[in-house]
Structure formats: structure tokens, C-alpha cells
Amino acid sequence: MNAGQTFLADKPVLVTGGAGFIGAHLVERLLKDGHAVVVIDDLSTGSIDNLKAVARHPRLHFIQSQISSYRALDELVASASYVFHLAAAVGVELVLKSSVHTITNNLNETQAVFAAALPHRTPVMLASTSEVYGRSPKATFSETDDLVIGPPQIGRWSYACSKLLDEFLGLAHHREDALPTTIVRLFNTVGPRQSGRYGMVLPRFIDAARRGLPLRVYGHGRQTRCFCHVSDTVEAMVRLKNSPEAVGEVFNVGNPEITSIAALARAVIELLGSQSTIEPVEYSEVFQSGFEDMQHRQPDISKLERATGFQPQIPLCEIIRRTAESMPPLE
Prior knowledge:
The protein is an alpha/beta fold. Helices cover 35% and strands 18% of the residues. The protein has helices spanning 21-32, 73-78, 92-97, 99-117, 157-177, 201-211, 230-241, 261-271, 302-308, 316-326; strands spanning 2-3, 13-16, 37-41, 60-64, 82-85, 124-129, 140-141, 181-186, 189-190, 215-218, 224-226, 228-229, 250-253, 258-260, 278-281, 298-299. The strands form 5 sheets. It has an 8-stranded parallel β-sheet with strand order 1-4-3-2-5-6-8-13, with helices on both faces. The chain has a two-stranded parallel ribbon with strand order 7-16.
């Protein structure tokens, strides 16, 4: 892996947060497709180990830095053919513990990326989140739905608001400055190399099941989610990059296959042949007072399908199996 201040001679694709879970898979795909790739990541939540498979690739260049403090950012973005902006605070637990960091990090880094992209109109894809749909009672969300954000006294909404402001900023730059901008709202992307460190439910369940420990289900367990394999998420993002009609638009990216959290726990136990049990846990035992959870979170991906022909290929049972098989042996 190349590192340092020198840049690749050809026009690379820039991936911010490229050492994160989704970012690293995207980097691998871009390299496979023949692109030169520059990654900038401060490794605050990502890991250089996520890039281990392509560490020696001659077309990969890695920069360890916060985006907004990188002195050559303007030059870096100017030299890029495209920017995937994935760098952000991640995980409900991290957001609740560090709301100030969440807000300032998401806003400042995104603002820096757009400011650097403007002079040369470098196209940017902004990775947003299904969290922006907030506490809406709808079961299935489409891109034109109203967004129902909870009050500022409840910490988890800081993440949704910061990412929503990122969206507003990107689309404003598109309208006012003709900056090619595409927004993707990611719904529960999972798969190999995802860490349960920040509260992600599937790796947390799989780790417990492998160890024969109880799978802790927060709340009543009837809340529903949809899980998309990271390779499907990356496929959708690459297709949108290559789609002229995606510019200036917002797209849900996810797998509409739906499951309750309790059913997910049962499926993990069954597929892994585990003797684990399911342990209900009150939210108050885990999160700060006033925590709110969304009861349903299913994407309508018809707009994505019309623009790119994308349909997710990997069902939930296979996602669980592949994720479990990718985990290192227990010590």
C-alpha cells in the first residue's frame, strides 16, 4: 500500500473513510474494476486491517489523516475523477456517547469535501443514512417521504440531523453551483469485517452465538429491520456512480427483505447451530434516559431499480452464514 504525500499519476477515485467497513469493500471493488484509488481515513473508527487484502496493490494510495485537517485536500480532490464520501461517525452507541463529536465531525468533514470539489466540479457521492427518516411511523420509506426527527434532548437524533444537513448541503451545491452530487441513504449494511464495537446488531448476535452466550435483544424485539450484504450495497453505489440520471438525486440503498430483531436472533442461533438463548433487555439498561428506537425501517428501492436496474442478490440467511464464516476463530 502506498502512503505519504505523493499522488497517483492517473485520475484516481477518492474514497473518504475507505478503511471503514463499507469503504474497504468499495475500495476492493473499485480496484477490481481497474480504477486507481486514493483512501483518506483517520482510522478513528476504521481499521487498516480492513484493507489487508489489497494492501500491496500498486493502484492503491493510503493517506492517514482527518479530511478537514489535510493540507493538500484541494489538490487531492482536484486530482480525483470521483469522490465517494463515506467518512462519518458510525453506530448508535458511539453517537449517544459522543454527540458533539458526531455533529462536528459529520458537518465539518462533509463541508471540507464539498468545498474542495467545487472549483473543479469533481463529482461527489455522499453516503447518508436511513436514520434521516427519524421516528416516522411508516413501515416502508421512499426518498420523497417527510422526515420526522425527534427532539434535541434525545441524543440519537444528533446523528440523523447532522447527516440530513449534509444532504441539504450537497443538494444545495448541486442546484446553486452545478456540483455533480448524488446522495445514498444506506439501510443496515452488514457482512464480513463489520465490527460490533459500536452496537451493530448482526455481528453482536453472531459473536454471542458462537460463544454460546445469550443474544441480548433490546426492547420487545418486534421492531423490524432490513439487512443488505455489503457487496450488494457496493454494487448499488458503483451503478449509481455510472448513472448520469443519479446526479442531483437521493436514493435508498438496501435490501427490502424484512425481519424482526427477535426473528434475527432466532435465525442466527439456528443457522450457527448454537445453544445460546435469547435475553430480552430493557433499553434503560443499555442506553441513556429517553432513548428512542424506530419500530420499522424498510427501504423502497424502486427509484434505485429504475435508475440502475439494481436488485439485491444475497438473502438474509446467506448474509448470516457468510458473516459468521468470515469471523476469526474463537480464542
